[in-house]
Amino acid sequence: MPLIRLDKYISERTEYTRSQIKQLAARGQILLNGCIEKKTYTKIDPEQDVISVSGREISSRRFRYFLVNKPAGYICSTSSSDGKSVLELIPPEMRKKGLFPAGRLDKDSLGAVLITDDGELAHRMLSPKSHISKIYIVKLDRPFQNKYIDIFNNGIKLSNGETCLPARVMSAKNCDKLAFIELSEGKYHQIKRMFAAVGNHVDVLMRISLGNLILPETLGIGECMELLHKDVENLLERPDFDLFCQSLSPFFSAILINK
Asked: What is the pTM of this model?
């Protein structure tokens, strides 16, 4: 990898501007391989050199990937004009310029949201050609009916005449008002509209899988984690819906039963 300027390296991987980086360097808050470096134009090797700013080591990775367990009340937007943005759930010391939520999740919904600055990956995830699968758990107003399975699998027609792609749905084992649903598209308020079309109502919705990347049991609502390369690869894989529902039903059901 070619050498690059120290200020360019830091700027691409943090929220600091070039002028802020210069000020930090002047105050001795930038370390290059453990030594104070005040010359921001110094050329560094991203693969070999270790850079720290204000006591935090800067990741050498060009792109960053965060999985957020979104609480209700946050919007999937880079702007906070319509409410609190999911970007606020990333700790300040982990943020960098260019982060955005890769996909939508309704303001009142919970669960998995990917935040990244990798536009190419986001495009692959959101492209209709990719049909990236996502699994949700919902709490319904009325008990789940087995007839939903065939109706959803055949491509349900919404109230406005749109027809959805085939979707899988399964009742949770420990509560007749809980159900899992797997989608490979993302129409506006789609799951709520699908259940409305069969005469039911979604009280709570939580996304628990993006591709084969499953929301970890240890990641609390409102928390985030940085993803490793192997985790990112799981985003583009399809989960085993039956196995997923059988193995994770108790944990995710417990969350929604209390909502």
From this structure: 0.82
